[in-house]
Every structure is written in structure tokens, then in C-alpha cells.
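C-alpha cells for chain A. Residues wanted.
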């Protein structure tokens, strides 16, 4: 049941929100550009597009964008750093991000003023509910007095402008050096009581929800320290799902029209009623459907590993709910129906999506059978150790709930504390190993590298012209000295095909 938790201001759908946003910034002179792929085309340092700025890195560094200096779009994104939090009210793996950019054009005054105008005049949000954070300053850069002044002039009282350290209100650089700068974040006050006297924007209690982040790239970090950038940029991001939930006055993103058809279908097929697991399935199948639509298949490496983890975690939740995992295929069709108008590739790849889901469900059933045989080997012990429980979880896909249930049937207990310790060790190890992979692509951006970035776009198009539309980029590695381009094709290219591609690239 949907729960109203705060006053509804302008109840609109996610679709309407996107239309209003793009129309607003179009009238402010922004060119509307399409969403980049979820799988980065020219950035081997990341597995997925995690923000709207990611595909724009070369242009943020000074290369001219063909559409101009003012841009706006709706970007499909995916992040897995908070995957364990999925199932609460607002966390998602896949999400859409509204963004507007200034590439050396307007700066703080316009960015903040237009954000305030869009929220209060277009979306009709009560300005009394708006709270903001700004950079408090440190040894590298001063307090952002300009942002404070602009917010004050717009009518936000000083008591609702909160100073925050660099860890909260400073973006970048990605890597050791490069563009960076302060940001100002806009929070919505839900009206919920403060959890303590220290409760303010950034608190996790649920009183304040961040809806928009405005980043001002005005510094460049070098070996000598911080210096002012010649080209100052604005990079903003607003989450579609969160903002829609806030505007509709519901307690969760899962109570919006983006998720309710999925939640309803899951409920119909489940014997148990555990909302967290319903949300996990709804979120993960949505993300999996989008990843599959770009040609990724479940595997044990890179994007394929993330996809496999999402699908199998969904299946685990199906076990908890006593729901047939084959429901995932029906849920994928619902996702396609919801989003295919904005992303036609979903409908185009529907057969592939369903087939790969079916294959992964079948494979996981085999893994479970192997896990049961392993379980039979350890039942001679009085207690299932945490290490054994974690092995069942990690190697055979057994959720701890399933291990506990089987153990109880056989009169055994599970050392849950040791399991948690093993799990935390694994999580920390995984976080350390993957930290480098999820850094953005602002490193190694020499002039030669920028040229190679452009070359990958041209090469990809030439390959599709000669070989067919089935060709998809699977990765690339770009340095200042050479370019490597990975793509899908069932056979080796002929000499004739290579010559035709060369002529297209260098007529």
C-alpha cells in the first residue's frame, strides 16, 4: 500500500518530469542530446556509465562539442557501490539522471538561479522546503561565498544554507590530478521530525532527501597544487526516480508508476510478503534488462559479472518469497513496456533479453543442486560454520536465509556471526579491488588521447556500415600512443572488409 509521507506539490509522472526538464533548459538555450550507452564507449576505466558527465569528459576538458556550449539530457546510469542498500526506500542500481551542462559558458549565478526557478516555478515546490549545502572551504580553496550569496538573494535564509567539508561538497579530481571544484546540493525537507539536534541535510534519517547536485568545475589540481581553470564548467545531476517520488508525495521510489507494476506482479506470484525482497527483484530485473539490451551476457568478468550478480540476487529473493524465478522473464517484459518509448533498443532486443534471462535461471538451478550436495557433506557437524555458510553463499549462490532454513530442518544451527565476518572481509576486498575500475575517465587526457576518443566513434560507425547493426562496442583501451577497439562479430574480418573500412575512415 502506498504511504503518503509529506505534502504533494505537483503530482506528475516521471515521464512528465523529464519532458518539463528538457523543455525548460531548451528554452534556456541548451541543446538536447541523447543518452549515451550504459556501457561506456571509450572509457575502459569504468564498467558502466555512472553519471551524465561521464560521456562528456573530452568536452569538459576543452574539446568543442558539436552541439554547442549548453547541453541537457536524460542519461541512463548504473551504480553498484550501494547494491546492499537496495531494498530500502530510495536506493537503486539503474536510474535515470537529468543533467544540464555549461562548457565554458554560464557559471554559478545562472546554474543556481535556473535550478531554483525550475523547482519553484515549474514543479511548484514550496521554497520553504528547500535546504542547500555549500563548500565550507579548506586549505586548497576558500569558502564558496558566491554560492551562499546567490542562494540568499533567491530567498533561502542563512539558517537553511549549510556549510559542508570537501568530503560532502567538493567534486574531483578523478585520479590524482585534473579538473575539480565545489558543489552545492539541493535537499527537500519532507517535514519529518529531526532525529536529533545535529540532524541536517546529509543525515540518513529520511528527513532530508537530496534531489539536485550542482558542480562548479573551476579548479585544476596539479603537482604544484590547485589553480584556476581557464574553462569553467557546470555539471548538474538530478535523479528522476527520487524526484518523482518526492513530487508524488510517496514514501519510496518503489511506490511510483516506475515500479508499482513490477511490485504488483511479484506480489501475485509470491507466497510470502517481504517488501525488501520484492524491491530487490524489481530493481535488479530493471537494471538487468537495460544491461542485456546493450548486448552484455552474464559471465564472471566485468559487466557480465555485475549482470550475473544482479540476476542471481533476484533469484535468491525469489527463493525467500517462495516465488518461481521464471517470473523474472515476465518482469523483464513489463520493464520493456514501461521504457521502450524512450529506449527503443529494449523492444528491439526483447528476444535476446528473455533468452539470456532464461539461460541464467537454468544455470543457477544447476549451481543450487551442487550447493545442496556440498551441504550434505557438512551436515555431520553440530553447527554449520560461518566459513561454510559463506562458501555456500559465494560459490553456490545460497542466501544465508536458505542455509539457515535447511540447517533447521536437519536440527543444526548456523554460526551467523562468523558468516557476517567472512562476508565483511569479502566485501572490503571487493571494494578495494574494484575501486580503480569505477574511477571516471578524466585521467590521461592528452591531445593525442582526445583524437583517439574521436577515432573510436568513427571506427564504430564504419564497422556497423560494413558489417551490420549487430556490431556493438565491448571495450576499448586508449593511451596517447595507440588505440585498441573491441567489438562483437562472429568471425574474423576479411581483407576486403578491412580495406573498405579504411576507405571510410580515410577517403
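Reply:
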Amino acid at each position: 500500500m502506498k504511504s503518503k509521507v509529506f505534502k504533494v506539490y505537483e503530482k506528475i509522472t516521471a515521464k512528465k518530469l523529464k519532458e518539463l526538464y528538457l523543455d525548460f533548459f531548451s528554452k534556456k538555450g541548451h541543446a538536447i542530446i541523447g543518452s549515451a550507452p550504459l556501457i561506456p564507449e571509450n572509457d575502459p576505466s569504468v564498467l558502466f556509465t555512472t553519471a551524465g558527465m561521464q560521456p562528456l569528459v573530452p568536452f569538459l576538458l576543452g574539446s568543442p562539442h558539436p552541439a554547442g556550449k549548453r547541453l541537457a539530457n536524460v542519461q541512463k546510469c548504473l551504480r553498484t557501490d550501494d547494491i546492499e542498500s537496495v531494498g530500502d526506500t530510495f536506493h537503486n542500481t539503474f536510474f535515470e539522471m537529468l543533467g544540464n551542462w555549461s562548457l565554458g559558458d554560464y557559471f554559478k549565478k545562472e546554474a543556481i538561479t535556473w535550478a531554483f526557478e525550475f523547482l519553484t516555478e515549474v514543479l511548484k515546490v514550496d521554497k520553504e522546503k528547500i535546504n542547500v549545502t555549500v563548500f565550507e572551504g579548506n586549505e586548497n580553496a576558500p569558502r564558496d561565498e558566491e554560492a551562499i550569496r546567490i542562494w540568499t538573494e533567491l530567498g533561502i535564509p542563512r539558517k537553511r544554507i549549510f556549510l559542508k567539508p570537501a568530503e560532502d561538497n567538493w567534486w574531483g579530481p578523478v585520479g590524482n590530478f585534473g579538473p575539480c571544484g565545489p558543489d552545492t546540493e539541493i535537499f527537500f525537507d519532507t517535514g519529518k521530525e529531526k532525529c536529533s539536534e545535529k540532524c541536517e541535510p546529509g543525515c540518513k534519517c529520511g528527513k532530508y532527501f537530496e534531489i539536485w547536485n550542482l558542480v562548479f568545475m573551476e579548479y585544476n589540481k596539479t603537482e604544484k597544487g590547485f589553480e584556476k581553470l581557464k574553462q569553467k564548467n557546470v555539471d548538474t545531476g538530478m535523479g528522476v526516480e527520487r524526484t518523482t517520488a518526492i513530487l508524488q508525495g510517496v514514501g519510496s521510489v518503489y511506490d511510483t508508476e516506475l515500479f508499482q507494476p513490477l511490485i504488483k506482479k511479484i506480489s501475485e506470484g509470491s507466497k510470502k510478503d517481504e517488501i525488501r525482497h520484492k524491491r530487490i527483484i524489481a530493481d535488479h530485473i530493471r537494471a538487468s534488462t537495460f544491461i542485456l539490451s546493450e548486448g552484455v551476457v552474464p559471465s564472471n568478468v566485468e559487466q557480465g559479472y555485475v549482470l550475473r550478480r544482479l540476476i542471481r540476487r533476484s533469484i535468491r529473493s525469489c527463493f525467500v518469497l517462495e516465488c518461481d524465478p521464471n517470473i523474472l522473464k515476465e518482469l523483464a517484459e513489463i520493464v520493456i513496456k514501461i521504457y521502450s518509448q524512450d529506449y527503443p533498443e529494449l523492444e528491439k532486443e526483447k528476444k535476446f533479453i528473455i533468452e539470456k534471462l532464461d539461460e541464467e535461471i537454468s544455470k543457477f538451478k544447476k549451481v543450487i543442486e551442487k550447493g545442496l550436495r556440498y551441504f550434505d557433506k557438512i551436515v555431520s557437524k553440530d553447527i554449520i560454520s560461518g566459513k561454510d555458510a559463506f562458501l555456500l553463499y559465494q560459490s553456490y549462490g545460497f542466501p544465508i536465509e536458505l542455509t539457515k532454513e535447511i540447517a533447521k530442518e536437519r536440527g543444526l544451527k548456523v554460526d551467523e556471526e562468523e558468516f557476517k565476518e567472512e562476508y565483511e572481509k569479502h566485501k572490503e576486498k571487493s571494494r578495494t579491488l574494484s575501486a580503480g575500475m569505477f574511477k571516471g575517465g578524466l585521467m590521461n587526457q592528452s591531445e593525442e588521447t582526445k583524437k583517439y576518443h574521436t577515432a573510436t566513434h568513427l571506427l564504430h560507425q564504419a564497422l556497423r556500415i560494413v558489417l551490420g547493426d549487430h556490431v556493438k562496442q565491448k571495450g576499448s583501451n586508449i593511451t596517447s600512443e595507440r588505440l585498441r577497439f573491441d567489438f562483437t562479430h562472429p568471425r574474423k574480418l576479411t581483407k576486403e572488409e578491412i580495406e573498405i573500412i579504411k576507405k571510410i575512415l580515410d577517403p
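The radius of gyration is 24 Å. The first strand starts at residue 31 and ends at 32.
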